[in-house]
Write a structure and sequence with these properties.
Layout lengths: L2 E5 L2 E4 L4 E8 L6 E8 L6 E6 L6 E3 L7 E6 L4 E6 L8 E9 L12 E2 L3 E6 L1
Parallel strand pairs: 2-11
Antiparallel strand pairs: 1-3, 3-8, 4-5, 4-9, 5-6, 7-8, 9-10, 9-11
Protein backbone atom coordinates (compact mmCIF):
# COMPACT_ATOMS: atom_id res chain seq x y z
CA UNK A 1 0.00 0.00 0.00
CA UNK A 2 1.32 3.41 -0.93
CA UNK A 3 2.19 6.04 1.69
CA UNK A 4 1.41 9.68 0.95
CA UNK A 5 2.82 12.98 2.19
CA UNK A 6 1.44 16.38 1.27
CA UNK A 7 3.30 19.70 1.19
CA UNK A 8 2.80 23.24 -0.06
CA UNK A 9 -0.01 24.51 2.12
CA UNK A 10 0.06 27.92 3.76
CA UNK A 11 -1.58 31.31 4.16
CA UNK A 12 -2.49 33.29 1.04
CA UNK A 13 -4.65 36.29 0.28
CA UNK A 14 -7.83 35.95 -1.73
CA UNK A 15 -7.06 35.91 -5.43
CA UNK A 16 -3.66 34.34 -4.86
CA UNK A 17 -2.26 30.95 -5.82
CA UNK A 18 -0.76 27.91 -4.13
CA UNK A 19 0.62 24.65 -5.43
CA UNK A 20 0.17 21.54 -3.34
CA UNK A 21 2.35 18.47 -3.82
CA UNK A 22 1.82 14.90 -2.72
CA UNK A 23 4.70 12.45 -2.76
CA UNK A 24 3.99 8.73 -2.78
CA UNK A 25 6.26 5.96 -1.56
CA UNK A 26 6.14 2.25 -0.88
CA UNK A 27 3.99 1.20 -3.81
CA UNK A 28 3.71 1.20 -7.58
CA UNK A 29 2.49 4.74 -8.11
CA UNK A 30 1.27 4.22 -11.67
CA UNK A 31 -1.21 1.60 -10.40
CA UNK A 32 -3.12 4.24 -8.46
CA UNK A 33 -5.66 6.82 -9.41
CA UNK A 34 -5.13 9.89 -7.25
CA UNK A 35 -7.31 12.59 -5.80
CA UNK A 36 -7.35 15.65 -3.59
CA UNK A 37 -10.00 16.11 -0.93
CA UNK A 38 -10.47 18.89 1.57
CA UNK A 39 -12.11 19.29 4.93
CA UNK A 40 -13.06 22.64 6.40
CA UNK A 41 -13.62 23.05 10.12
CA UNK A 42 -16.94 21.52 11.16
CA UNK A 43 -17.66 20.12 7.70
CA UNK A 44 -17.40 16.76 5.99
CA UNK A 45 -14.51 15.82 3.76
CA UNK A 46 -15.25 16.74 0.16
CA UNK A 47 -13.80 15.80 -3.21
CA UNK A 48 -11.77 18.51 -4.94
CA UNK A 49 -10.07 16.90 -7.95
CA UNK A 50 -9.03 13.49 -9.27
CA UNK A 51 -6.76 12.08 -11.92
CA UNK A 52 -6.56 8.67 -13.56
CA UNK A 53 -3.50 6.45 -13.26
CA UNK A 54 -2.23 7.51 -16.69
CA UNK A 55 -2.98 11.17 -16.05
CA UNK A 56 -5.17 11.38 -19.15
CA UNK A 57 -8.48 11.83 -17.35
CA UNK A 58 -9.11 14.52 -14.75
CA UNK A 59 -12.16 15.35 -12.66
CA UNK A 60 -13.10 18.42 -10.66
CA UNK A 61 -15.69 19.54 -8.18
CA UNK A 62 -17.88 22.27 -9.60
CA UNK A 63 -16.67 24.65 -6.92
CA UNK A 64 -13.07 24.56 -8.19
CA UNK A 65 -13.54 23.96 -11.91
CA UNK A 66 -11.62 26.51 -13.95
CA UNK A 67 -9.50 27.57 -10.94
CA UNK A 68 -7.70 24.38 -9.86
CA UNK A 69 -5.61 22.01 -11.94
CA UNK A 70 -4.56 18.49 -10.96
CA UNK A 71 -1.57 16.80 -12.56
CA UNK A 72 0.80 13.93 -11.86
CA UNK A 73 4.36 12.90 -12.59
CA UNK A 74 4.61 9.12 -12.45
CA UNK A 75 8.40 9.20 -12.75
CA UNK A 76 8.62 11.33 -9.60
CA UNK A 77 5.65 9.57 -7.91
CA UNK A 78 3.98 12.90 -7.28
CA UNK A 79 0.61 14.46 -7.77
CA UNK A 80 0.05 18.20 -7.76
CA UNK A 81 -2.82 20.58 -7.21
CA UNK A 82 -2.35 24.03 -8.68
CA UNK A 83 -4.84 26.37 -7.03
CA UNK A 84 -5.49 29.77 -8.59
CA UNK A 85 -7.93 32.58 -7.83
CA UNK A 86 -8.25 31.31 -4.29
CA UNK A 87 -11.26 32.30 -2.22
CA UNK A 88 -11.77 32.35 1.56
CA UNK A 89 -14.18 29.41 1.15
CA UNK A 90 -11.25 27.31 -0.13
CA UNK A 91 -9.82 27.38 3.40
CA UNK A 92 -9.48 23.79 4.60
CA UNK A 93 -7.10 20.96 5.30
CA UNK A 94 -6.25 19.37 1.96
CA UNK A 95 -5.67 15.64 1.74
CA UNK A 96 -4.07 13.53 -0.94
CA UNK A 97 -5.64 10.10 -1.55
CA UNK A 98 -4.74 7.04 -3.61
CA UNK A 99 -7.00 4.38 -5.06
CA UNK A 100 -5.63 1.13 -6.46
CA UNK A 101 -7.29 1.26 -9.87
CA UNK A 102 -7.45 3.24 -13.09
CA UNK A 103 -9.95 5.98 -12.36
CA UNK A 104 -10.67 8.47 -9.65
CA UNK A 105 -14.02 8.83 -7.88
CA UNK A 106 -15.51 11.44 -5.61
CA UNK A 107 -16.30 9.03 -2.75
CA UNK A 108 -13.72 8.99 0.08
CA UNK A 109 -14.59 5.39 0.95
CA UNK A 110 -13.05 3.97 -2.23
CA UNK A 111 -9.56 5.28 -1.49
CA UNK A 112 -6.96 2.98 0.02
CA UNK A 113 -4.39 5.46 1.31
CA UNK A 114 -4.47 8.98 2.70
CA UNK A 115 -1.91 11.58 3.62
CA UNK A 116 -1.91 13.53 6.85
CA UNK A 117 -3.14 16.71 5.21
CA UNK A 118 -1.82 20.22 4.69
CA UNK A 119 -3.56 23.40 5.85
CA UNK A 120 -4.59 26.01 3.30
CA UNK A 121 -5.86 29.31 4.65
CA UNK A 122 -7.17 32.04 2.36
CA UNK A 123 -7.61 35.46 3.92
CA UNK A 124 -10.12 38.00 2.63
Amino acid sequence: QVQLEESGGGLVQAGGSLRLSCTASGGTFRDYAMAWFRQAAGKEREFVAGISWTGIRTYYADSVKGRFDISRDNAKTRVYLQMNSLKPEDTAVYFCAARNGPVSEDRPAVYDSWGQGTQVTVSS
